[in-house]
Design brief:
eight-stranded antiparallel sheet; 24 strands; 24% strand; 14 helices; alpha/beta; single chain; globular; 30% helix
Length: 476
Amino acid sequence: MRAPRHYDGAVSQSLLPSDAPALTTVFAGGRATVRHLRKSKIVITSGGDAGRELEITKPRVSGGRSIINDLVLSDKAVSSTHFEVISRDDGFRLRDLDSTNGTFIGDLRVKEVFLKPGSVFRVGHTDLRFSPTSEIVEIALSERDRFDRAIGGSVKMREVFAILEKVAPSDLTVLITGETGTGKEMIARGIHNGSSRRAKPFVVIDCSAIPRDLIESTLFGHEKGSFTGAIGQHRGLFEQAQGGTIFLDEIGELDLTLQPKLLRVLEQRELKRVGGDKTIKFDARVLAATNRDLRQMVNAGTFREDLYFRLSVIYVELPPLREREGDIPSLVQTFLREIGAKIGKSLSVSPEAMQALSGHPWPGNVRELRNVVERAAAMGESQNLEKRDLSFGRDREPPAPARATAPTGAAPTLTPGLDFKEAKQRIVDAFEVAYLRELLTRNEGNITRSAQSAGLTRYHLRELLKRHAISARDAD
C-alpha cells in the first residue's frame, strides 16, 4: 500500500464530536479559512489481506488491485480500480467505479451509498469495515482568490490554489483532471509561470488532434528519410520543450500503442527520433490533463496503469462551475474588463443579467460562460449587458432548424415574430455551420489542415466544432 501522493493537508490531533460531518469549513470574519476533514479508516476484515488497514487523511481514496490505488488488494476478483470513498460536507460516500464484480453491502449491490460508522462492504472475496475517528485533518485554503490567470474565491478553488502554490515551484509531474471547459490548460500555464522554468518554452500537445500515424514523429521527431514524406530532419515537441514545460493535453486520447514509448521517455528522461539511433537527453517538466476517468480506462485496459502512476505524482481535480458557489460574478467582471479593453469600451452587466448567469447550470463550465459573455458583449445594444442580450446556445427555447442541418449556401428558416437579435444569431449560426462543414469536407476531415486553411488555431477550430456539435466525421 503506497502513501497518498496528492494531498498536502496537515494532520491535527484536534478532536471532533462523534456525530460531526465528514468535511466542514471553518470561517473567520465571513471568509473561509480552513477545512476540517474527519479522519477515518478502512480495515480489511476477511480475505487474503485481512488485518491490513488504510487511514483516510484526504477527501478521496480508492481501492483495487492496481498500484494506482491508495488501498491495493491482492484479491483477483477485485477490479483494477474497484471503489472509492469520498469525504464530503454531507457525509462519507462509497462509490463503485464500474467494477466487474460489483460492490456489496449485505446482499445488495450498490453503485453509490452513504457509509455509517461500522459499515461493512464487500468487494470480490474481501470484506472491509469503515470506521470514522474523532481526529481531524486540516485542509489548507489559499489566502488568494486567483492563481496566475485562474480566478476563484470559492472554497473548492482556494483548496486547489493552495496545492498549486506549493507544487508550482517544484519539478513534480502533475495530472490535472476535470470536465471540459474547467480551465485545465490555464492551470497548466499557471504552474509553468510559477516555476523556475517560466522563461523557457511552454509546449502544448493536444493528443486528440494529432493523426495516429504522425503522433510519434510529432512528439519525438524524425530523421530525414525515416518514412515517406520525411524530407528533412524534424525536432519533436519534446525536444522543443527542452528546459521548459511540456503539457500533454487530452492525455486520455493517446493511442495505446504509443503509451509504452511515452512511459519510457518519462522514466529514462531520454528519447530517440523516429528512424534515428542517437539518444537525446530530455529535460522538461511534464504536465498532463484529461476530462476522462483514467482509472476506469485502466480497468478497461485502454490506459496503462504504470503510465497513470507516472503522470499522477500530483493529482489535481478542478471542480465544475456549478460547484463553485459565488465565483460567477467575479469571472463575469473579469471577462468584461478583458473584452472591454480589446474593443475600447467600458462594459457592465445588469443585476437581472447577472442573476440569469448565476442561475445557469453551465454544462460547458468556464469556457461556456466566457463564450456567452463575449457573444453578449459583441451583439448587445448597449455597453450595459441586459438579460435579453444573453444567449445560452444549446439551451435556447426556440428550435433552430438551420443550426445543425443547414447545407452549404442554404438560408436558415426563421420563425415569424422572432425578435431581430435572435433572427440575426440564427443567421450567423447557420453560416458558421455551413462554413465549418465545407471546410472539413474540403480537407477530408483533417483538423490540422482545416485550421491552417482557415487561418485558425487547432484549439479555436475545435471550440467552434464543439459549439455546433460537429465532428470531423460529419465531412461528406
